[in-house]
Design brief:
The complex is a heterodimer of chains A (318) and B (306). By secondary structure, chain A is α/β, with parallel strands linked by helices. Helices cover 40% and strands 16% of the residues of chain A. Chain A is built from 10 helices and 11 strands. In chain A, the strands form 2 sheets. In chain A, strands 3, 5, 6, 7, 8, 9, 10 and 11 form an 8-stranded mixed sheet that branches. A two-stranded antiparallel sheet of chain A has the order 1-2. Helix content of chain B is 44%, strand content 17%. Chain B is built from 13 helices and 10 strands. Chain B starts with 17 loop residues before the first helix and ends with a strand. Classes of the chains: A alpha/beta (318), B alpha/beta (306). At the A-B interface, strand 4, helix 4, helix 5, helix 6 and strand 10 of A face helix 6, helix 7, helix 8, helix 9 and helix 10 of B.
């Protein structure tokens, strides 16, 4: 279910570079330089401010290594959705405000020289909501990971499914899940980073289906938003409800990693997972390096092309 | 008509009395917006308290049914029922959301809103079916997954996600039927299937119209308008190719004749299974993936793709 997650305005650190602001964690007054020089983390108390997708790419990808995949996809308006404003208006405004084409950017990148496929969500773009484009970009990122055999890293930040695309948004949960299953069959290492906030349809699909789930300190992660729960059970929620630390206590995430260490830890995790994949494939490789006759080499190449052509993620080219 | 206007009986849904209904209509008329009454009638029919629920269909469709309980981790969620049924010379795994009719049973069934253990029970049963090559049928009828603290602590999101993954993975034929309310992720969690059928007066949506109105219109009394805009009726969903087939209901709605509704469902199930069972299992699974891969509408290089 899509829901609005109430986000303290002060957490919108990513967008407010115009002046000093006080940290919601320790009330210390921070200049924009203090924050951007420290990965948008308060140098005094470690409070993690929200990051835009571009800042996130800058944080995780080696300089100059990012190249976008599926950047030409844009949202359509299949339901001709009109609430207080038409959907295309809202899209246009989000594009203008964030400078992004959608709530998720996908691309190839290198992290400490390791090749990866990366998908990064931005809460600033219509609450990071998942519509058809986010689903399709996720699929293409997964397909790219399977084609290249590079691992997939997804940084999640989302209020849930995008209401303006109605049922089509809901079905993106099913679509992304199918992509995860194809990656699992490959197998492609798949790691998600849950950042503030990750909720709703994203939480109930790819975000929690990763091989390793990493959370950022203090980030909210839940299926139903706090307000919805409060209204349903008519009780005030505990202060740590749905936070990364509480999810850790309840066994819902693998580890909490402070942002300043995020890149190195991700590379370490991916390296270990890849090590596993390499071990599993070792006998195959050895077999393949055995000297083969001319006919054998041809047959092998033919099998490989055939296997690639029949690969499930390739089969439904539009 | 007075029967149709019975109040929705779910929590979280604001009970509106006739006065607010009428004033709502007047407000709409005043604004000159065209409200299609038929859409809201369908929402109310889908939530009709006498509408047949999963156990009603099971009782009317199958001679032998053994309900299986528990997720083997935490508990047994009564908002989802499941079990084995004998069906025309074969065995079928039937899993569905279950609502209650009176106060006691509604409370027991948690108004059809499952907790994580419900989805984990469903996964366990689906894996059991897969092991023995038993086709799976799911019946969808929930306002949504339960929003509660304990449910979140036990991983509501991951339970739904893993239910989806489990359904994607199944090698047996799978059929889902939306029999009432298809409420958001809590409904979809059981509907990633080879065939998705929908009873004529059911609804299936990303969010309840009430919640959508509260968020986008900042006024939950705009639910009628939200329902219409969201496109949640069977006709809307057939047009978007989200569902494979709309099943007609007995005259006046499924609540008028449970047995007739069950017959319709049984015939449709038979047809779907006959088709699916003749397919090569690998091809069937591949087609399932391709079907969900096609879901979505977007623009690529200026072209709108459906």
């Amino acid at each position: 279910m899509a829901q609005k997650v109430s986000v303290d305005i002060s957490r919108r650190g990513g967008n407010s570079l115009d002046g000093a602001q006080s940290c919601p964690g320790c009330k210390e007054l921070l200049s924009p330089g203090d924050l951007s020089g420290n990965s948008m983390v308060c140098p005094h108390c470690g409070h993690h401010f929200r990051m835009t997708a571009r800042q996130r790419i800058e944080l995780l990808a080696d300089p100059g290594s990012w190249s976008e995949i599926a950047g030409n996809l844009r949202s359509a308006d299949p339901l001709e959705f009109f609430d207080l404003r038409p959907y295309p208006d809202r899209l246009e405004e989000a594009e203008y405000e964030t400078g992004l084409s959608e709530a998720m950017l996908t691309g190839r990148a290198r992290m400490n020289k390791m090749d990866v496929i990366m998908a990064v969500m931005d809460f600033g773009f219509m609450g990071g909501s998942m519509g058809s484009v986010v689903g399709e970009r996720f699929w293409r990122a997964a397909a790219e990971a399977m084609d290249t055999r590079f691992p997939l890293v997804v940084v999640c930040a989302s209020g849930g499914a995008r209401m303006q695309e109605g049922i089509l948004s809901l079905l993106q949960m099913a679509k992304t899940t199918c992509a995860v299953e194809l990656m699992a069959e490959a197998p492609i290492p798949f790691v998600t980073v849950l950042t503030h906030p990750t909720t709703g349809g994203v939480m109930a699909s790819f975000a929690t289906l990763a091989d390793v789930i990493v959370a950022e300190p203090g980030a909210l992660m839940c299926f139903s938003g706090p307000r919805v729960i409060e209204q349903t059970i008519k009780e005030k929620l505990p202060e740590d409800f749905g936070l990364a630390e509480s999810n850790m206590d309840h066994g819902q995430v693998d580890l909490i990693v402070p942002r300043t260490e995020l890149k190195d830890r991700l590379v370490q995790i991916l390296g270990l997972l890849e090590g596993g994949v390499a071990c599993a494939l070792q006998p195959l490789w050895e077999e393949k390096t055995r000297p083969a006759g001319r006919r054998g080499a041809f047959a092998q190449a033919f099998d490989r092309i055939k296997a690639l052509a029949n690969a499930p993620w390739r089969s439904s080219q539009r | 008509m007075t029967e149709l206007k019975r109040l929705p009986t779910l929590p979280g849904v604001h009970l509106k009395d006739e006065i607010t209904k009428i004033s709502q209509r007047l407000k709409e008329l005043g604004r000159g917006r065209h409200l299609d009454k038929a859409v809201w009638d369908k929402v109310e029919l889908a939530r009709h308290p006498k509408r047949p629920y999963t156990l009603d269909y099971i009782e009317n469709m199958f001679a032998g049914f053994i309900e299986l309980h528990g997720d083997r981790c935490y508990g047994d969620d009564s908002a989802i029922v499941g079990g084995l049924a004998a069906y025309q010379g074969r065995t079928l795994m039937v899993i569905g959301h279950q609502k209650g009719r009176d106060l006691a049973s509604r409370t027991k069934r948690n108004f059809g809103m499952p907790r994580p253990e419900g989805y984990r029970k469903a996964q366990r049963l689906m894996q059991l079916a897969d092991k023995f090559g038993i086709p799976v049928m799911t019946l969808i009828d929930t306002p949504g997954a339960f929003p509660g603290i304990a449910a979140e602590e036990r991983g509501q999101g991951s339970a739904i996600a893993n239910s989806l993954l489990c359904m994607a993975r199944l090698n047996v034929p799978t059929v889902a039927v939306i029999i009432g309310e298809g409420g958001s992720g809590g409904a979809l969690a059981l509907a990633l299937t080879d065939r998705v059928l929908m009873l004529e007066n059911s609804v299936y949506s990303v969010i309840t119209p009430e919640a959508c109105a509260a968020i986008l219109w900042k006024d939950s009394s705009e639910a009628h308008l939200a329902a219409q805009t969201l496109g949640m009726t069977s006709a809307d969903l057939a047009r978007l190719e989200i569902i494979d087939e709309v099943l007609p209901e007995p005259r006046g709605g499924a609540h008028r004749d449970h047995a007739a509704a069950a017959r319709i469902l049984k015939d449709a199930l038979e047809e779907a299974l006959r088709e699916l069972e003749t397919m090569n299992p690998r091809l069937r699974k591949k087609e399932r993936f391709e079907k969900f891969r096609r879901m979505g509408v977007w623009k690529e290089n200026g072209l709108t793709l459906f």
